[in-house]
Write the structure tokens for this entry.
Amino acid sequence: MLQTRISSFHFSKHAKFLSSLPLSGLKVIDLSRVLAGPYGTMNLADIGADVIKVERCQIGDETRHWGPPFVSDNFSSYFVCCNRNKRSLALDYSKPAGREIIYELVKSADVFVENLRPGTLAKYHLDYQTLSKLNPKLVYASLTGYGQSGPFSQKSAYDLTISAEGGLMSITGPKDGDPVRVGVAITDVCSGLYLYSSILAGLYQAQKNGVGQYIDVPMLSVQLSVLANIGSNYLNSGIVAKPMGSSHPSIVPYQGFNTLDGFIVVAASNDGQFRDLCEAIGWPSLPSNPMFCTNDQRVENREQLIGHLSERFSEETSSYWVTLAENYSSFSVSVVNNVEQAFNHPQAKYLNITKTVHHKKEDVDIRMAGHPVRFQNKDSAECRPPPLLGEHTTEILSELGYSKSQIELLRADNIIG
């Protein structure tokens, strides 16, 4: 178990729930913004960490304003997706008094997270070398576009540009079509998850040897890593992948098909599953054809096989094929749901993935996809709504020992918001 500190925040009503979660007592100072960094730190917050989101006074995280749609006048639906369970501290750390607040927070923190351009925080003496002197056990994590050094290190990075440079867009979309951006910012999301997991690794090491460390998570490296089999095909066989629509370069059949009334996807990933599929659709002799008897032959003769299957699947409705597949435990058939249908999927409802929280100050109910992992049947059903800008500034400074008059003076000097 991580040896961490417990701030007074954890004695609130909500904190009693958090105390049963794995990261209860962990304190995270989060200077990240937009999606990748906040998504990673939200995952820490979801399982018990006290994440203090440090934001610019008056402006805050720019995703607060990325809309429509908006949940309220103070934050967008976009901001909601990656900022629940956090506390907001509005602070100008470009000023010495603001930096002193960061220093005080760091002394009792476990983790410090940022995603600014390399070298930015060094100008304000908030780099790892400075902060680790205040707290040798600190795990300091930077999420960057291209890394801390190198020819592209100072280039601005966005999910769109990294997915383009990192090869993802070149393999996404219809065959012979233009490169296509994935429908969600998956490079950002994956980078946030790598950030999350690397922080946990850093904390475990700090527990073992008493020393923190600096972690850099370059989004370009993440994107290349998650090319997975596509990247491996190039590195080991020189194959430069091209977009294939919904089909798979190494498995056939594993793609979408039109039906009499819609669209389904069919996955038969080995020879046994292919035999079951052919039996189900009424073509039990097809696997005995030398052109289709093994997966490598099916890949080689993809066009002929897909032509046969496309004709067959177009003869019945989507529900017919889905129901038919339920009689088999091998191959799989699914309809393609839109987002509304996905959230209303019977299994999604059973898993209780959709959470609703009430923001008292805004007097608005906020719905969101909650943390997907359960710990001993605890599904993190309780959660705090995303914070208003600076909502917890006074609370956090009071925990650090600042008096009411000191806080008022800092606010008058525009150090805090």
